[in-house]
Inverse folding.
């Protein structure tokens, strides 16, 4: 994008935006349209996200009405889109963001209703807009036809994706994609049976997906255990596993402290709260797991200890920034402890914020050769001293078991 986007505050800024939208629709250059800052009567509605697709050969836009707790999808023929958007701006939405192959256009209304139009012109030609058909080719690691997806309410009786579960479906596929890449680089024999523990398995979406992918897609022997505190969820998942004939898939009631496996090859803990993530990572390291996958949730232990270094005090005096710094420090230390224990570790965005707010993944794959942890432990000590942190749960657990040097 150009560094200096053009801007317009002319009274016809709204009209200009609608004309640009019409041109993009006519030329087939529209990639995405987002309407945000909702001010309408329905307070649960947050935004509308529109993307092109073909419905029975007719050019249309798929409009996802994103509410706080659900999504509603509506397909609208292209010729009706401009009129619909015109009705919504500015009475229902105060921001509109148009993405095309030529660049971006953003329309924003002030509190007094004054429109502002900004254009960001692409520095180089973008790739053509993606194919719009329902049947466009996508890399999927699981098929929607899998029976467990219907049983868990992801698909309907005909095997079609239920619109409100689209974000969960994206998360499931991304999770399996990340796991598949990790498995390819892990020091595990191709024929080796795998033992997997999924802590905080909930309704079992990812647990079933992992088991199905290993046994049905890869043809590997696998024992997958979902661990969940809520007995009703455990009963629900065990009943589904038995009904769907998923041998080697079981669910146990407990948590990462009460269920202690003797040995596992894969440890999963998504959205484990606060130090539960540390207990999960410790379990994976102690069991010599080849793959550890964590998506941390809240970060409470380090923040009260955090002392703002002098240079950073003006920045960290704001609570939001302090919380973000505590989160970054907590997860950086976790990644470094994993490195010190012989893992190649990555910290990355698991799935776009468009689909979930809990989107950070810590992925650790056991190295084939051990590493000298001395330098890493020195870096950890320096980081802790810089921020005044005296205790980190994962370090305490690892030291107690002699997994890192005292």
């Amino acid at each position: 994008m150009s560094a200096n986007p053009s801007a317009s505050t002319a009274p016809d800024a709204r009209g200009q935006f609608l004309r640009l939208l019409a041109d993009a629709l006519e030329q087939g250059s529209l990639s995405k349209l987002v309407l945000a800052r909702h001010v309408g009567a329905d307070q649960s509605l947050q935004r509308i996200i529109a993307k092109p697709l073909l419905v029975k050969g007719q050019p249309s836009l798929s409009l996802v009405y994103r509410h706080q707790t659900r999504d509603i999808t509506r397909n609208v023929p292209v010729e009706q889109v401009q009129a619909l958007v015109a009705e919504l701006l500015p009475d229902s939405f105060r921001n509109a963001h148009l993405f095309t192959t030529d660049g971006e256009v953003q329309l924003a209304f002030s509190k007094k209703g004054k429109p502002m139009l900004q254009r960001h012109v692409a520095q180089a030609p973008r790739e053509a807009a993606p194919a719009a058909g329902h049947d466009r080719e996508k890399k999927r690691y699981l098929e929607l036809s899998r029976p467990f997806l219907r049983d868990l309410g992801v698909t309907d009786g005909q095997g079609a994706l239920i619109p409100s579960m689209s974000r969960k479906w994206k998360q499931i596929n991304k999770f399996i994609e990340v796991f598949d890449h990790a498995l390819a680089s892990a020091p595990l024999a191709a024929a080796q049976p795998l033992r997997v523990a999924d802590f905080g398995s909930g309704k079992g979406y990812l647990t079933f997906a992992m088991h199905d992918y290993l046994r049905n897609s890869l043809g590997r022997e696998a024992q997958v255990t979902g661990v969940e505190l809520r007995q009703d969820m455990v009963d629900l998942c065990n009943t589904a596993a038995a009904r769907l004939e998923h041998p080697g898939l079981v669910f146990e009631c407990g948590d990462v402290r009460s269920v202690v496996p003797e040995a596992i090859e894969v440890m999963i803990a998504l959205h484990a709260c606060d130090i539960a993530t540390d207990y999960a990572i410790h379990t994976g390291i102690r069991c010599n797991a080849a793959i550890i996958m964590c998506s941390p949730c809240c970060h409470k232990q380090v923040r009260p200890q955090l002392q703002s270094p002098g240079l950073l005090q003006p920045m960290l005096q704001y609570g939001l920034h302090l919380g973000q710094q505590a989160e970054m420090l907590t997860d950086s230390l976790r990644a470094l402890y994993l490195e010190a224990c012989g893992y190649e570790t990555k910290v990355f965005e698991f799935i776009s914020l468009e689909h979930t707010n809990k989107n950070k993944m810590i992925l650790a794959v056991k190295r084939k050769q051990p590493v000298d942890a001395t330098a890493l432990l020195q870096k950890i000590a320096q980081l802790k001293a810089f921020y005044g942190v005296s205790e980190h749960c994962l370090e305490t657990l690892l030291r107690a078991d002699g997994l890192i040097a005292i």
